[in-house]
Fold these 2 entries.
Entry 1:
Amino acid sequence: MSVLKNTSPKLIVFSAAVIILLIVAALAPLIVPHDPYAQDLSQALLNPNSAHLLGTDRFGRDIFARVLMGAQTSIYSTLVLVFFTSVIGIFVGVAAAWFGGIIDSLLMRTSDVFLAFPALIFAIAVAAVLGGGIQNAILALVAISWPKYARIARSLSLEQKGELYISAAKVGGASDFQIIFIEILPNIIGPLLVTSVLDIGTMMMELAALSFLGLGAQPPIAEWGSMMSDNRNLLQIAPWTVFGPGLAIFICIAIFNLFGDSLRDRIDPKRRKK
Amino acid sequence: MSRITQIRNGLGILAVLLACLVSCALLLSTGCAQQEGQSSQNSFVYGTTGYGVDMSDAGLNPHKDYSGWSCVRYGVGETLFKFNEQMQPEPWLATEFKYLDDKTCQITLRDGVKFSSGRALDAQAVKDCLEQLIAIHDRAPHDLNIESIDADKNILTIHTKEPNPSLINYLCDPYGAIVDVSAYDKADDQVAGTGPYIAKSVSDTEISLEPNPDYWGEKAKVGNVIVSSFTDGDALTAALQTGEIQGTYGLPYASYALFNDTNKYATNSTNTSRVFFGQVNCNSEIIKDDAVRTALALGIDKEGFVNTLLNGHGAVATGPFPENFDFGKNKVKAESYDPEKAKKILEDAGWVDSDGDGIRDKDGKKLVIRWLTYPGRMELPLLAESAQYSLKQIGIEVEVNSTSNHSEIRKDKGAWDVYVSAIVAAPTGDPQYFFTTSCLKDSAKNFGDYSNPELEKLAKQLSTEFDPQKRSELAIKMQQIILDDHAYFFASHLNMGIVTDSHVSGLNPHPSDYYEISSDLTVKE
């Protein structure tokens, strides 16, 4: 109860919304009203109706079922993507800050090289080389997105490096590994967590963009970006085929962004004072 | 006071002058607008997805890749013979031909024809052009099989190395467009042809045409034609809707419904011999099983594909040739969609679903088909996704690989089981082309290494048979062999549509897909 008392209502509401999204995505195969992959050409391009809440696509597949199923692909793929991006970035950043010298220069110049490329263009190039598929799209985005976390983690770690408690740990005989994992990481994880959560929306958009370009999820996998791409030439004739997944992307990104903002308000000490 | 009056008068004069200036400017601008309007009435912008580097037909030089298609399609070049609606050759730049013997064909050329360079068309000019064609083109030397050419005024005599019954048909191929080879401008991809239009400028994305004042036939009626390349069907749709272009080739099937208003738009379409078909990889262990090949043929819902996914803009195929050919569609028999029969055939062959996952297996091996195709033709991914589902219903898992890198992957015989592509089955109106390019042991496009001794024997007969009736009979037998072997399955034939502004007429698609802009093109006020 005391935790809830100190927590802003916004954070509670958006946390609940995120949890609902995750549950819906996890249970999608069980709650879909129709088989999202079942084709019935006689039911192609039906308007939204009571049997098909968001209508059907050109193969006669229920769009609502595909949007629900797509939630699993889109949301969990994004979470995996953000997880790997942030973990790799954080370790690179902390290692660069802690070891300094040539390791720092090497890691930071490498990250500079990656930062020099326009993110999505580089991801498209990587995905094109690796070939289509959601795993390859995730790999492509991880490859281009980690330097941001490395930069933040490095600057936060450098601040901590000069603190007395680190000197105390050193004097106490702690190893580099212990200092990084036991002393530094717990003290910098808050801002990095907020960055990660705020990044979910962007990553989801980028993943959807790669799928939209045909470099992410491949047919018939239900994924919001590829659903929009598959149906884009039906936009004027059967707009519901694009609006369904488009709306899902919008709602999902909005919820994660608002959750990220609330979490930042809660964690960031400067904002908390305000 | 007088000073004020003077100033007032001065201001008044200035105001009158300004008013005059403004009026003149308005009148001038209106005049300009009218002039522009008049010239735009006599101009035509044609948007197409069929022109450009991706299609290997950029430029107008018929001796380069598929650029001959652009040369003929856009009214710059003409061939000695052209196809009629039944895909039979008719005179064009030539007036008649006769075979002096099996290897000698004499062609009489039309009088009074001039290249846009000013040179008169005679047998020597045609000889120069055809000799350059067979010297540098990739397909023509093999097709035409020319040994030598004699030129005497308007009589052209072609000697072939072997009897070539399809010679006249091959001369209809756009690579056979007759151009003045002495006037070819390499820097601009320009050619001097004999067509109703002359290219003012040519780039990889746009061709600007103007009428040929010395054209031998009916003169072109449109002052300026611009052929504009589009790589995206949706952009093409939007361009026609906004009036940026007045005619289109290659609209996405879904977009046709947007142009149903006959007061605003006109749609013309025709069936072509471009066929969407699959060939199996005879090196694959799974494919070697005839039951699997038969089930594949039985498990593809062609009707659904054509009627729903192509919105009826196509024709269900049986064999490689559509029904407007003497040896086409109804003359051969192939399996139609019958999932129950497919299930039984697989069951009888020992393919059962032993672990209940919906996919059949035999001797511990899952029935998985690797389906290689490419997205360049929008119909192919749709066919793949449709077949993926319908074949899953009979217990066959289909792994689709739709990639623009297909031409590299298909070289690796261990990387695919079925290759699905599109080809113009009878570009010369003759059946021989399809078999020699796709079905024989040494065919360049027989990617799955299919071979049948009986087919090879009949192909030899076909290559030396001059009688059209007997050629048709041979073609029917040959089609039936490949269908009975279940080595190929044919899904649909392309229905080619041209949608124009209702003010445009005379722009009609042709079954050969070769002829688009001609002197018939008219833009009404």
Entry 2:
Amino acid sequence: MDFSAVGAAAAEALTLASFIGIGGGVLLGYIVGVIPGLSRSVAISIAIPMTFYMSPFIAISFLIGLSKGTAAGSAVSAILLNAPGEASSAATSLDGYPMAKNGKPKTALQVGLIASVLGDILATIILIFVAIPFARVALLFGPYEMAAILAFALVFIAGLSGGNIFKGLAAGGLGIFLGTIGLDNQTGLPRLTFGYTELMDGMPLIAVAIGTLALSEMFIQSEKLRYDRENMSVALKKDSSDRITWPIFKTIFPTILRGTGVGTFVGALPGLGPSVGSFMSYGMTVKAAKDPETFGKGNPKGIAASESADNAVIPAALIPLFGLGIPGNVSAALLIGAFAIHGITVGPLLLRDNPELLYSIFAGMILASVIMLVLGWYGLMVFAQITRVPPHVVIPIVIFFCLAGMVLQGYGTFGLVILMAFALLGYLMKKYDYSFVTFLVAFIITPMLELNLRQSIILSRGNWEILLGRPIAMFFIACTAIALIALIIRTFRKEKPLAEVPAD
Amino acid sequence: MKRRHILTASAAVCLLMTASLGHAEGWSPERPMTMVIGFAAGGSTDIQGRVLARSLEEYFGQPVNVVNQPGGGGAVALTRFLNVEPDGHTFMFGVQLGLTFSPIVTETEYDIDDFRYAGTLVGGQFGVVARGDAPYQSFEELVAYGRENPMTYAQQLPMDQAIMQLIADQEGIDLAIVPTGGGGGMAPLLLGGEVDFAFSGGTHAQYTPTGEMNVLAFLTRERSPFYPDVPTLVELGYPYAMDDFRSFFLPGGSPDEIVQAFEDAARFAVEHPPFVETTVENTLHPIVFMDAVETEATIREIRAANEALMAN
């Protein structure tokens, strides 16, 4: 490791501007996380246009801080409201809400916060120590390997997110189809642009992301508003015995370590989101416990298991992103877009060409964890109040930010029309249970997949035998085939999906 | 073709001289101005444009707002630019490829005659690169190697592909050409050893100082000031060139005095240290000045050359 670069990175991470940027990101993320119905990817897609005028380091750290904040904030509403702010905190409410009802709301919140922060810091450290050596060997991943990994990721996401593999593949197919619009990357000829110069660079990513993720979600939320009455939030009272103690911390610490391990593993695999991580960690903790019957009734270990894994996924999803430029989930995919806006190509050469930037981002991520701890600890009362903000206030504000973010892109009225079209598409997909996550990830990785596939075919000169000398590519092709067959069999048996993977 | 290459050091004295000239006579803006950039925020055109906007504020004494209209390599911005009032308050810091190349491969609503051109500020440095440890250290050696071995080439634009295909046919090289989707995609392919040589629009500047990449030849008409020893293809005996410059574009029908004012502004900016430093050091592009007449002539010349090339 280049220590002068590390020193410079630490110095950059400790400026006032970065404190404001990262702190602002964490705070915003916390608020978004607390409000049920406002999810992480919604927040990131709306926030990307806000970063146009920040330096690349602050912009990326701001967005990562935002992701981390949502993961920690979502525990607040899961515990006090029994309605997780993020789907990935659903497992937190299993024990968090009963604990709050039993008169220990503050202890529950503190356990959630400490598990979040520790999971986050440990996973960030793992990211730093894995990503750097990984980036060194990442040049071994040529077009053959990249194409195989991308195909694997697509099938995996399609299978996990919908339950029905055919619906998942249909959603992915639509994403691939829309992803091919624009100039052909070799001949420069326009494809499916129908004479619109605006479409020459493809469907604008921000319009597709904000439309299918954020705006359509607001339609769904406002629809719910008509039928649902609000849950009552558990109020925090002054009670000096209601706080985390050293014995409680000692009992949950091993759980946090396990949760971090599970979360990091799940996060590093392309296609698996925090929801899988938190439920897997919760399940493993219950299995390993001597007293499994206490879970679901307010066991702090349940909160710690879910929250540590939930937060660990976020830094871990950056391992394939920084190493190969392949996104681990939707939030990471949106980060690729954010890097591109700032003129940086994410991939194997990022560490080589922009080491200061990468080290600064790592330093910024650690700083974000610390800010998260401070904000969460002292802001508990305030964030608890946010659980009471009614949706009819939240929804119009979010819609405004959706539209403003699109206008900032500079596509004019055309962009707004596209945005509305994708909001409608996202709404219908959610209504009819087609995975919009699969759709969006397919849309984002299609240009990459197409390019690598084309390169492989041309470089191999049509000779299949070249794959024999490419064990990594062979491995992922085999995995893709096995996953596809397994998922088809599962669909026909109508088994329950492995886990629900909502937008994360 | 007369042209001055100006590097960082030369500028300080000139700044004092030109700053006092300011807008002494002729046209000057009456209200804040808008600079259109046909690329997304963060790219090299955007970075240069935003610093250029500061230089122009100093020169014109009016705020200059930057508006990004990305899409189609500048084609979206040029299409919208058709409807702009020719009063000098809205202008474009444009990449010529949108005029010299896009109209050839796709139907555009605009063409060269729809705009006026008021001075060039930045040049391109398109080149052919290979790995530093490749068995060929010059373009001649590459050709000799290629006659014996099948080779792979990473393209970025249809034009560089056309040029390499012509050379390969002429020299009897068995060449497979792959797309890369830009300089960010080219570097891992070349450094990872997947391709033998590649086109570079400027990415090489990051890798030549460490010896990881070698520029074998430039596709431009003139040698790059940063690599004075590397020959151009024309010098090597292949009659093909590919050039691109960044210039001020004005709406068609702009009066001569406004064109003159922007030509003077370009003259000021290419000697204004912040713009020169950013362009040369941050975005690794050479400063190239051309006046209004030469800019338009160059655009037409490059367009004709590209048409001839793509007709093959």
